[in-house]
Amino acid sequence: MHRESSDAAKVRELMRRLGEEARGPGRIYLVGGASAVIIGWRETTLDVDLKLDPEPPGVFEAIARAKNALDINVELAAPDEFIPPLPDWQARSPSITRHGPVGFFHYDFHAQALAKIERGHDLDRRDIAGMHGRGLIDPDRLLTFFDSIEPGLLRYPAIDPQAFRAKVHAAVVALREAGP
Known about the structure:
Elements: H1 8-21, E1 26-31, H2 33-39, E2 47-52, H3 59-70, E3 73-76, E4 95-99, E5 102-106, H4 109-119, H5 122-133, H6 139-149, H7 161-178
Parallel strand pairs: 1-5, 2-3
Antiparallel strand pairs: 1-2, 4-5
């Protein structure tokens, strides 16, 4: 079903509803366009991508009600589905807010950037520039984090490790040239 794009107000209302309707504690991480509209480098997003970890009880029922009430696309998607998880990604995931027993966070921006570098769409490149321009990612740390996950790329057969490394190096060069 086609739904309308979501702006920051709609994403914030989704967070409020999910937190208030959850029957217990948990954490919900915003990913991609959801982070972009909350922070402000994009006005809208087609999908609100979420990672539930740990999953708040009752959240799937709340998602079903909210997506219809708000005319919003909600998907469960996170960088660790496409690339190996970065060490300690949860500790680097900035808090957004809390509603009821549920904490809301931005999924670690370095992990988001690496997943976007691997995918390589035009919007991904603009998102990486948006993260960098707001000081959310550091080019040198991207290289360090890539080095830490490279051995785990064997578990992701769709990824060519050498091509991914080349993309990361090219992105780091471009970010350094763009300046702080």
